[in-house]
Amino acid sequence: MLFTVTPLYALPLAAVFLVLWFRVSSMRAALGQSFGDGGNELLLQRVRQHGNFVEWTCFVLILMILAEGMGAPAVYLHVSGAMLLIGRVAHPFGLRIGNAGHPLRYVGNGTNILATLNLMVCLAVNILGL
Q1: Are 63 and 30 in contact (CB under 8 A)?
Q2: CA gap 115, 96 in Å, rounded
Q3: Which of 15, 19, 37, 55 has the fewest CB atoms within 10 Å, i.e. is most exposed?
Q4: Domains of the chain: which residue ranges?
Q5: CA angle 18–105–122, rounded 5-degree value
């Protein structure tokens, strides 16, 4: 099976991953902090922005690969891929210390949940042969 949809979203997501990683790594180097946050709130924020990205992106991309491999219609994969990409770009800007209710945090979380639910339906339909 040739995967044609999932890679379209995996590539820009990989670029976002590297940007978030670089922000953590460069700050660690500047602070001389090899692991942990050393009590620095800005470093903690950047670590969580990167960590949250990794947690959601890997999970949803795995669901996309499974759904695409099972023959899910491309439109459903594009919907989930677009929601994941939008959410993962928006979320780091909304994940702020002292502002748990930032609108971009809700955009990031909401789109991830919707992308996941969409893919779960795709998988269930294929598994059950509907």
Answers
A1: no
A2: 23
A3: 15
A4: 6-128
A5: 80
Q: Are 70 and 129 in contact (CB under 8 A)?
A: no
| Contact by Cβ (8 Å): 81, 9 | yes
Q: pLDDT per residue over 13-55, tens digit each?
A: 999 999 999 999 999 999 998 888 898 999 999 999 999 999 9
Dist CA 56 CA 46 (whole Å): 16
Class of the CATH-defined domain 6-128: mainly alpha
Give the DSSP H or E segment for 5: none
Q: How confident is the model at residue 130 (pLDDT cuts 50, 70, 90)?
A: confident
Please check whether residue 77 is in contact with residue 5, taking contact to mean a CB–CB distance below 8 angstroms: yes
